[in-house]
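Work through this protein:
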Amino acid sequence: MTEQVGLSTAVKNSYDAVIVGSGPNGLAAAITLARAGRSTLVLEAESTIGGGARSSEMTLPGFVHDTCSAIHPLGIISPFFRSLPLAEHGLEWIHPPSALAHPLDDGRVALLEQSVDATAERLGSDAKAYRQLMAPLVAGSDVLFDVTLGPPFRIPRNPLLMARFARRALRSAQGLAHSWFSKDLARAYFAGMAAHSMLPLDYVTTAAIGLMLPLAGHAVGWPLPRGGSQRISNALAGYLRSLGGEIVTGVRVESIKQLPAAKAILFDTGPHQLSRIAAAHLPGNFRRRLERFRYGPGAFKLDWALAGPIPWKAAECARAATVHLGGTLEEIAKSERACWQNEHCERPFVLVTQQSLFDPTRAPAGKHTGWAYCHVPHGSTVDMTDRIEAQMERFAPGFRDLILARSVRTPADFQHSNANFIGGDIAGGAMTIGQLFTRPTVRLNPYTTPNPTIWICSASTPPGAGVHGMCGYNAARAALRTVLR
């Protein structure tokens, strides 16, 4: 017996599937099921859909800021997204001339270009090593993306290629950078890529992230959606509705009792929320395993309305929508290690995007937006504004003079706006070796629970964080093979 608390009277009494959460993975699960002819309902706690893929005017009228995710290499390589007519529902990708810029203090800049050779040429004496490292992986990128974004424990199509990748990837970023490169620019460039893992750079899994991001840049680029990340979510929702799927916002699910009857309930939530919401429907030992799931560092984020473009000391930085600020490998490693020691680095590694340079819809004519965040300890309450802006001034003197308004998002703000971001962890849980393939618990099919009706499809399942929809797609495909046959 259900008590459909807070649900519209237009909602039916039963569905084949109910999806809790409208992030990219929840929408992906719903689309996959709707395309298979199953009736679907998506419930979202917030007033707008999208989870980590949302946009709003956070500073001044006319300035559109991405509330979390901004640049989407995984979105454009996602096998699931590529199968959808998202352009017909308003999604347009913009490709900046360069995917990424990583400046050093002396004015040298590493640029991630689509061409491996063009990227290598800027790395001086490390050019040959970079080509040898990346060129074979780029040649097999379709296979690598299919394996790394697909469900775990599959036999790969090209075992030799995967073995080559594994030899490079299953080590620390520091170890790979020091063994392959001899100079500081190439090492810094690779460290910045690996720091997206939100792990100390001596952790084993960090080299894999450091390889996958430039691999995506060479294969397809690092695009941004025209109009903001919300356009991705809106396109997914538009396509879902065209298939007959339903979405209801403003409904915070606290108990399964609130839901209509369904053959399957898929949770685009973290493991802790699943344990709480489904408490009466899951065994105690499984709930305890969910509650032991480990979250990683938080994010502290600034959005700026700017009077003009960021005045980079190295002009090449204006070629890229994404800029990594952190200097050398040693500096970046110190910053990322600090988060795990409950410390706040004085010179944090800062991820910056400047979408309005390439997308004029983001700001009024002549004005610009800036987006930046750094990693901080889980649940941090320290204000990192001055430290982030000092890093901006370090590489873009005069930056502060351009600030018209700023928006500050602390780890608590992230969690308040999206309950999945526990302690400000925007990655859905630490990507340690113990949680890389066993997210959220050790199960042969990680999307299942002991209750055949209840599934989990969030970034806390493989393949993990990113706006790609593959967690939801993989979970829905598994449900179609079993409970929704």
The domain at 14-59+229-293+427-481 is CATH 3.50.50.60 (FAD/NAD(P)-binding domain). The chain has 18 helices and 16 strands. The first strand starts at residue 14 and ends at 20.
